[in-house]
Design brief:
Number of domains: 1
Helix content: 10-25%
CATH topology: Thiol Ester Dehydrase, Chain A
Structural class: alpha+beta
CATH superfamily: Hotdog Thioesterase
Strand order of the largest sheet: 1-2-6-7-8-5
Strand content: 35-45%
Number of strands: 8
Order of helices and strands: HEEEEHEEEE
CATH class: Alpha Beta
Radius of gyration: 14 Å
Oligomer: single chain
Shape: globular
């Protein structure tokens, strides 16, 4: 299910881990100095936050639809809500709707307080059947 993250080199570079908590997949990106985008604040690089959210969405699709191959993004929109602090970031995703060809997914990333997200993702992914 979440082993998909370990097959992706950039997800390994980010140090992503995943765990199930109350029937919910939570993906965590531990803090590392290489993830800082603004050393003056310091703040996490937006690209690492976006990658966390996209990988979380992919892992959620894989969890809900385990027979599919790696889903490919069609479009991805990230809303940055506040600066990411130099601490670990957690994220969770939700498949809003999945048809035969396209899935609509939302994901949210937070740090200390889950009710204060630092970024959200809305995306569509192409569903790849193993038979196609």
């Amino acid at each position: 299910m979440t082993d998909i993250l370990f097959t992706l080199p950039y997800a390994r570079f980010l140090g992503l881990t995943s765990a199930m908590q109350d029937d919910e997949l939570i993906v965590t990106m531990p803090f590392a100095d290489r993830l800082v985008g603004d050393p003056i604040l310091p703040a996490l690089h937006g690209g690492s936050t976006a990658a966390l959210l996209e990988f979380t969405a992919i892992a959620e699709i894989a969890r809900v639809h385990p027979s599919l191959r790696l889903p490919r993004p069609i479009n991805v929109s990230i809303a940055y809500l506040r600066s990411g602090k130099p601490i670990a970031v957690s994220a969770t995703g939700r498949v809003v709707r999945a048809g035969r060809r396209v899935a609509h997914v939302q994901a949210t990333a937070w740090q200390a307080e889950r009710d204060q997200p630092i970024a959200t993702l809305t995306a569509h992914f192409l569903m790849n059947n193993n038979n196609s």
